Structure formats: structure tokens, C-alpha cells
Amino acid sequence: MALQRGFTIWFTGLSGAGKTTLSNIVHHRLQSEGVTNVEVLDGDVVRTHLSKGLGFTREDRDTNIRRIGWVAQLLTKNNVPNIVAAISPYRNVRNEVRKMIEHVGGPGSFIEVFADCSVDICEKRDVKGLYAKARSGEIKQFTGVNDPYEPPHNPEVRVDTSQCTPEAGADMIIDHIRSKGFVKL
Length: 185
Ligand code: ADP
What we know:
Blueprint: E1 2-3, E2 8-12, H1 19-32, E3 39-42, H2 43-46, H3 58-77, E4 82-85, H4 91-105, E5 110-116, H5 119-125, H6 130-136, E6 157-160, H7 166-179, E7 183-184
Bound molecules: adenosine-5'-diphosphate (ADP).
């Protein structure tokens, strides 16, 4: 597989919906097929440095997403494929980032992937034990429990992670970037 031009794969979805899992598989698959210069920006990691000190108000969440979007935009401009995995609950700021990326990377270079999964199922998975803490009141402003999540209207790819395996979800994403000509066999 050879890279043709830069792009941003932007995962959005609830905590536990599968953003990190899918981004890791897609990352490794691209690497193993020869696209080696891929960067991953994981929301949890970003909050420990680039966005350290930001909280979970709408304003802080939007600031966090704008910062990640800014970095993603620099990477895309320089033909470094990048993958963002962040809840990014607000539609407006996601669309703002979409414009910023497409401005430097061209049409289609912002690939929004909706990791779609109900709160019920995410809560049953409770990968990080956060839903339990949100229910007990230990964590406030937890997306899907007591903070909003606005699903995308027209994501480039929607993966219903309650219905497929992570590998099948990753296939859908790889198929998309291949069909749009971002990578070639
Ligand atoms: P997020 O990054 O969105 O918070 P994670 O990737 O950390 O979510 O956790 C998702 C959990 O759901 C993992 O334990 C993963 O194994 C499981 N899972 C089950 N089916 C899928 C699927 N189709 N895609 C992604 N994750 C899945």
C-alpha cells in the first residue's frame, strides 16, 4: 500500500464505543502494509500534555478539539496520515475542524468515523470503570450520562461496534480510504 496524500481519520463516539481499539487496528494495518509515517492523537493522551489543565465544560472540550484539530491539520498538510480518537461530543466544533483539514488536505481528507454504540452497551463494557464513577457521582459531566453527545449527521464511515468485530470495523475504514484514493495497493 502506498500513500497518495495526507488525511485525518477522526473518530468520534462515546467513551467505550471503540475509538481507541479501532484506531490501533487501523494504525497497525496501515503500518504493516507500508504506510509507516502515521501519527495517532488519542484524546486521553492529549489531555496529559497538549491539553493539560483543560476540564470538561463545553468551552474546554471545544478548546481541546480545536487544539487536536490544529495539530491534525499540520500533519495532513505535510502528507502525514493521522488518526484522532477523541469523544469530540459537539458537532459544531467537529465541523469546524473538518473545514480546517479540508482546506489544507483537499476534499475528503477529513474522514469522520462514528464509533456508534449505545450508552447501555458502553456502560456494560465499562472498559475504564468510568461509567460506574459517573453513576455514583464521582465524575461529573460524563458524556452520555450527564453530558451531551451529538452524533454526526453524515459521517464518512459509521461503525456500529455493537454489531461487528473490531477487525470488521477496521476493514470498513481501510476500504473507505482506499476507495477514495488516499492509499493505493
Ligand atoms: P473508546 O476509545 O471509544 O473509549 P475503547 O476502544 O477503549 O473505547 O474500548 C472499546 C471496547 O469495546 C474494547 O474493550 C473493545 O474490545 C470492545 N469492542 C467490541 N466490539 C468492538 C468493535 N466492533 N469495535 C471496537 N471495539 C469493540
